Amino acid sequence: MTAEALRALQVPGKPLVLPNVWDADTARLVEAAGFPVVATSSAAVAASLGLADGEGAPVDEMFGAAERIVRAVAVPVTVDAEGGYGLPPAEVAERLLALGAVGCNYEDTDHVNGGRRPVAEQAERIAELRRGAGAGLVINARVDVFLGAEDERAVLAEAVERGRAYLAAGADCVYPILARSPEVLAEFVREVGGPVNVAPLPGGPGLAELAELGAARISLGAGLWRHARGLLEATLGEIAEGKLPY
């Protein structure tokens, strides 16, 4: 599948569902379950390497893991590239294309200096990423203003401004990560004027409701990894008590 075919799967109201993976084995399971695209989770990949999310893992290790995932499956892979690991956007594009990815997440958090990058700066970074990738990457631009926000409505206007700017700069989709309120999500979708990626969160809308809100793409993020890890932790507890649960 090409990047253009992946773009075509991002349909508002009929979203592409992405169970994010962390290694080649989990990628194969997603493919075997019939999902047409594999996505990575930076948090889960970093944890599997024994390292921290938020660009706490070296770029070579993160991209090496992504390349192993790409090689393991026949379906296309979109890679969580965090904020680009301090690399120039054109180099991020070049490296993603070289390892075989057809899409990426690209966030506006500045992991070196902290906080979010100014809108204009991040829009230019997305434009540079687009110029470096041409049409070969589906860019999912993350909007991070809801991270840690006590009042989602208070940051909604900034989120919409960022979403519009990122789409205008060449992003294919925007991702208001950790936005939870159905009303806020619906307004963001209406106002931003382009495909929106959302995530199902505890206490928030489920898959069907997110589709009704107009999502074009649904990412599980680190949720699948956390769920699997919780099951493994519980199983290990049983074994420690002398019970063999399988």
TrEMBL record:
<protein>
    <submittedName>
        <fullName>Isocitrate lyase/phosphoenolpyruvate mutase family protein</fullName>
    </submittedName>
</protein>
<dbReference type="GO" id="GO:0016829">
    <property type="term" value="F:lyase activity"/>
</dbReference>
<dbReference type="InterPro" id="IPR040442">
    <property type="entry name" value="Pyrv_kinase-like_dom_sf"/>
</dbReference>
<dbReference type="InterPro" id="IPR039556">
    <property type="entry name" value="ICL/PEPM"/>
</dbReference>
<dbReference type="Pfam" id="PF13714">
    <property type="entry name" value="PEP_mutase"/>
</dbReference>
<dbReference type="InterPro" id="IPR015813">
    <property type="entry name" value="Pyrv/PenolPyrv_kinase-like_dom"/>
</dbReference>
<keyword id="KW-0670">Pyruvate</keyword>
<keyword id="KW-0456">Lyase</keyword>
